[in-house]
Amino acid sequence: xxxxxxxxxxxxxxxxxxxxxxxxxxxxxxxxxxxxxxxxxxxxxxxxxxxxxxxxxxxxxxxxxxxxxxxxx
Length: 73
Fold this sequence. Notes:
The protein is mostly helical. Helices cover 56% and strands 0% of the residues.
C-alpha cells in the first residue's frame, strides 16, 4: 500500500475534524470489516452504569458535532 502524505500542519482544526469524519464515514460503510476490541464492552458497560446513576447525559449526535465544530473554529 502506498502511503499518502497530507500537509496536516497546514490544515485548521476544523478541517482536520472534517477529514476524520469523512474517513470514518467511508471506513464504516462496511461494518462487517470492523471488529471492536474486547475492551469496548467494558467501556460501554461503564457508560451505561454512569447513565443509570445519573452521572452522565446523552446528547444528540448532530448537536454534538455542531458544538465541536463551533469550538474548533
